[in-house]
Amino acid sequence: MSEVISLQELQLAARNHGMPLEALRWDVTPVGLHYLLTHYDIPDVDAATWRLEVGGLVERPLSLSLDELRARDAVELAVTMECAGNGRVHVEPHVVSQPWLLEAVGTARWRGIPVAAVLAEAGVREAALEAVFTGLDRGVEGEEEQAYERSLPVDRLLDGDALLAFEVNGAPLPPQHGFPLRLVVPGWYGMTSVKWLSRITLVDEPFAGYQQRHSYRVRLEEDEPGEPITTIAPRSLMIPPGIPEFLTRARVVEAGACEIGGRAWSGRAEVEGVDVSVDGGDSWAPAELGPPTLGRHAWRGWRFTWDATPGPYELCCRARDAAGNEQPLAPEWNLGGYVNNAVQRVAVTVV
Ligand SMILES: Nc1nc2c(c(=O)[nH]1)N[C@H]1C(S)=C(S)[C@@H](COP(=O)(O)O)O[C@H]1N2
Ligand SMILES: [Mo]
Hints:
Low-confidence stretches: none
Structural class: mainly beta
Order of helices and strands: HEEHEEHEEHEEEEHEEEEEEEEEEEE
Bound molecules: the ligand Nc1nc2c(c(=O)[nH]1)N[C@H]1C(S)=C(S)[C@@H](COP(=O)(O)O)O[C@H]1N2, molybdenum atom
Number of strands: 22
Strand order of the largest sheet: 14-15-22-21-17-18
Distance between the termini: 26 Å
Number of helices: 5
Largest sheet: 6 strands, mixed
């Protein structure tokens, strides 16, 4: 890992906090501990005049107030959300952006209206290929002034579980998570889930906005189109065992039976197993995987009992899913430092 991050990266890190990894203890992440990523500023929204506009290639354009949305049939889904840049500081050479270690993740119960229901109400026209979701927040990125906008293919939305959420963990969305309404797309990296929604526009060609055409693509060179980033690759993380040293965060664990536990998730298929290593990945043993208590869109718990004897160790955990995706042992570089799901390594001294 690079030893120095810049003042610019610190500015981003101070605004966009991660989930402290000890919060992996909770099935559902308390809202204030859920990670946060906001490219520009949190917009000032007046709920009384706010409307969701649904337009473009639809039979019946809609303009819905928050009360009108809340009056419709709502569903609640537990969803593990992760930023595509999670793990970025571990790739070499260093990528300058939001400097996530491994904490850009959280699980919440999002409540709202299925996107599919709203699209059905508006009546999607035959020619519509994608829906563009536009946020109220504006900024400049890549020298382009823009609103934060992303699109998804219409057919995915019509048979998918995507939600227009107005509640998180039983309370109205707080400003930082997209009040009054946000998109939540289970299984996809976080950039898909547009906050502070103002508009859904059905279009007949692939959306070419900055966050789609340039950002969130796996590219090795600046001038190649690259592969778009979509669903979440498998990852497991452990609750840091023992106690931390204040400045270095190095862990100190007492000798004896040590319960190691954590969570594992994948947006690509069901998590099938988690393996644990206490010797930096030279040897592995299976962890016990907990039941999928939160449903198929959220993480699962796992645990492992370690007979810890004095000395230095490197603890690792590694998840794999039913589609055969497994966490790599070492990070792979790309221009944006995206989708680095290499195994977590935690240095521990047993005393
Ligand atoms: N309008 C808007 N939506 C957005 C963003 C943003 O900057 N503006 N950031 C995206 C990114 S990159 C991520 S990872 C998630 C983070 O959601 P959270 O802050 O609620 O955890 O929101 C996504 N939706
Ligand atoms: Mo993100």
